[in-house]
């Protein structure tokens, strides 16, 4: 049984985070509670390290934060739609997050495949509109379930 990359319980609508740190901690808690990760602080640190290389913020108040280290046991995508914008960098605010959490070993270039698929989706205006307006996670999940087929090939 392959664990899914994206699952209904990894889509969060109208969260109320105020800071990047709150968001990163929440993401790390999700992988820990679903047994997909094993060290909260190291996972949070992984997100920060990635942002220091360069910001994962994009247009349209979207960011794709990612953490790739050995404390992540299973490739996971978490979607967060925050009620308000979070200050991401000095000149970037973000409201929609597509977080990628991938194991450090990364056999078969999983993180590149997930990243490519997520990047493709967020370039589709109707997808972003859907994520912005959806009343429940089902509609968002339907569009993202394509991510679950990446590990078969």
Kindly summarize this structure in a few lines.
With 153 residues, the protein is α/β, with parallel strands linked by helices. It contains five helices and five strands, in the order βααββββααα.
> How far is the first residue's CA from the last residue's CA?
15 Å
Secondary-structure content class? alpha/beta
Shape: globular
Low-confidence stretches: none
Strand-residue proportion: 15-25%
Into which percent range does the helicity of residues fall? Answer: 25-40%
What number is the mean pLDDT? 93
What does this structure look like?
By secondary structure, the protein is of the alpha/beta class. It has helices at residues 20-33, 40-53, 110-122, 125-133, 137-144, and strands at 11-15, 62-63, 66-69, 76-89, 92-103. Strands 1, 2, 3, 4 and 5 form a 5-stranded mixed β-sheet that branches. Strand 4 and strand 5 (92-103) form a beta hairpin. Helix 1 (20-33) packs across helix 2 (40-53). The longest helix is centred in the N-terminal third of the chain and has 14 residues, at 20-33.
